[in-house]
Amino acid sequence: MSNLLEGKTALILGVANRWSLAFAIAQAFRREKAELILTYQGERQRLNVEDLSKELGATLAPCDVTQDDEIGKLVHELRTSGRRLDSVVHSVAFANRDDLSRPFSETSRSGFLLAHEVSAYSLVAVARAAAPLMTEGGSILTLSYLGAVRVIPNYNVMGVAKAALEASVRYLASDLGPSNIRVNAISAGPVKTASARGIRDFSTVLDEVSRRAPLRRNTEPSEVADAAVFLASDLARGVTGNVLYVDSGFQIMGM
Ligand code: NAP
Known about the structure:
Layout: E1 9-13, H1 21-31, E2 35-40, H2 43-56, E3 59-62, H3 68-80, E4 87-90, H4 109-130, E5 138-144, H5 156-176, E6 181-188, H6 202-212, H7 221-232, E7 243-246
Parallel strand pairs: 1-2, 1-4, 2-3, 4-5, 5-6, 6-7
Bound molecules: NADP nicotinamide-adenine-dinucleotide phosphate (NAP).
NADP nicotinamide-adenine-dinucleotide phosphate is lined by residues 14-16, 20-22, 41, 45, 64-66, 91-94, 118, 143-145, 188, 190-191, 193-196.
């Protein structure tokens, strides 16, 4: 490719391991010459992510997105080190495993709130904290899924949280547009990752996509990553408030 992100600094939340969509995005951003800051949720993940961040020449910092003080500390450290941010990738989601296997109507109040806090509100909190560092404008990107707009078996409360996430993209795009900060989502086709393994019968979803999607195959993490490069780059300077499907075209199919 062609150094599309040269001179830009990207903060990437959600690299847990080599299979994370955020890792594929980080690799593609690095290929395009972005400077990277990766975050990890807690000590449990630090060692794993440390190796990956070394591989990418990235800076590493802790950030549990449910903790305002951790988001604040991260941004404070970036500001005091004189870092400007050009891009934020929010690739974070969580729901209780129980809520991804029983009927949606049985979702508990606490499970509903937890899924929304981690998977949707965190985008708002991170965007608010990061925006003042985006002094030359920038791009904020999150990851969504078709379950936001269609019923996907067992996706349940996560689908409702993704609907809130996609609506948040539009409201944030409206708020931050005057500062030339663009906010978009990629709705990725299903990919086998640690999070996806928490969804019951996930392999059936993969089979269905490979049989019915116009491209007759599943989504590769690198396809999501290349779309993320586009959205973070100046090529997408006129694009904000959008949900871009990178899913082999599956979402257009009726029967
Ligand atoms: P993943 O590798 O498991 O990534 C999910 C990330 O969220 C992990 O790094 C996880 O960290 C992090 N996370 C969870 N709770 C957090 C918290 N409180 N604070 C900070 N980080 C937290 O799975 P993935 O599939 O790449 O998921 C990335 C994004 O893509 C998610 O938004 C997911 O919904 C979306 N997506 C995935 C697919 C798919 O089929 N895989 C399709 C469409 C969209 P820990 O591991 O430390 O908990």
